[in-house]
Amino acid sequence: MGIVVVEVCDGNAITKIDIEGIIESEFPEVAVLKNECLAFCGLCRVRPFALVNNRRIFGKTVEECLDKIRAAIKEELAVYQ
């Protein structure tokens, strides 16, 4: 398990890309977990989002969300450097 955990909902638009492969290849210390539901009812249908160490990260597009996830991961990792 990584020191940073990214959680995504199976029903979310962010899963249209290989979020797990992308993030885990760029950041080996990060674990990506796919869940059936993250219990943020309706948010997954409205816009792409993920949880980064339990902090909600979302964007208007998949690409914007992915960029924000990367930035949040870098913030979390900065604590350990």
TrEMBL record:
Q: Which Pfam families match?
A: DUF1450 (PF07293)
State what protein this is by name.
Uncharacterized protein YuzB (UPF0349 family)
Per the record, the domain of life is Bacteria
Q: Which InterPro entries match?
A: DUF1450
